Amino acid sequence: MKNKILFACTSGLFCLAMLLSSCSSRTFSINCEPSGSLIMQGTKYSFLTSSNIVGVAPLQTKVMFLGKNDSYFFSATKRGFYPDTVYITRDSALSLTFSLKPIEGADTTTFNPAKLKGASFIMLPVLVDVYLHKGVGSLDKYEYTETQSSEVTKNLDNGIREVHSQSNTEYPGLVSVKEPDSWKFYSEKYRDFLLDLNGNLLNYYPEHPSIKGVYWPIDKLFQVGSDSSRYLVYTYCKTVKPTAGRIVGNIAATVAAGAVEGYNTATYGYSISYYNAEAFSIDNNTLIVSFVICPKTGKVLFRKDTVVGYDIVGEKGQKNITATILGMMKEFENNELSSK
Length: 340
Known about the structure:
This protein has two domains: 23-99, Immunoglobulin-like, CATH 2.60.40; 113-244 and 277-334, no CATH class. It is built from six helices and 14 strands. It has helices at 2-22, 146-163, 180-194, 218-221, 244-268, 315-334, and strands at 24-33, 38-42, 53-56, 59-65, 72-77, 84-88, 95-99, 120-123, 127-136, 139-144, 169-170, 230-242, 285-293, 300-308. The strands form three sheets. Strands 8, 9, 10, 11, 12, 13 and 14 form a seven-stranded mixed β-sheet that branches. A hairpin with a 6-residue loop joins strand 13 and strand 14. It is globular and about 60 Å long. The termini are far apart.
């Protein structure tokens, strides 16, 4: 028996040593023409997100390879240029240079959030999607409810109109919409387009993202004009509320699971059942995403994301979220900005 244990330990250590010996790190120096391009790193299995951002070229970065066949890629992107990608292994040259090709006729300007300081804003009606968190334990699901979404959208609109700041922010609200049904349709189109945009990449997309190239009837729905010193703010909220059934069911299931685990421990000296506490978590939060948009060009200039730990289906939540949204507007007015 001891020999078997010794053999197993020796084999495990040998495998670990082989694995560690195949691991190696390399430091890459990355340059780009033109300079100032954003460099991102990933694998063929990964999606590019903010966590993939390495920095702005020129730069140096270390990459850990788990074996000789392990591969990654570096991608370079800059406003007004076609992006480029280079794949690397541990045997690749340690000096990389990107030469990006210009996009003919593309606008190469970027936006400095400092321009928002002291500007005035037109805040468009807030769109709210309500999802109910149903089911017990891991047998859960999220169900969109159109009735409650419409109700909360209207209630939040009334609340913002009653208390919003009159200083630098104008809030026309749903009452000023010329075609309410059209606004709902286009607001959902804006949501689908805007949520796909990464706030950290807005100044680095090859071409400036613009709602005008996708859906742009805002000038027909609202009298917003084209004064470049005034900015549009589109805000979307996604709120999740657990149903009473999930709350009660989770409590009962948790108590039952605890009883079974206690019995198993008392009988066998250890638990023989698997209990995943995360499966019984209560999802109760709201995501707020605001976008600053130029009314003249439709260009998306800035994105701000905030998550709060409550739903906004009830009156209390709606009052709290109104204060949060108006607080975000103050950040825009005072230029106290970050994309997170």
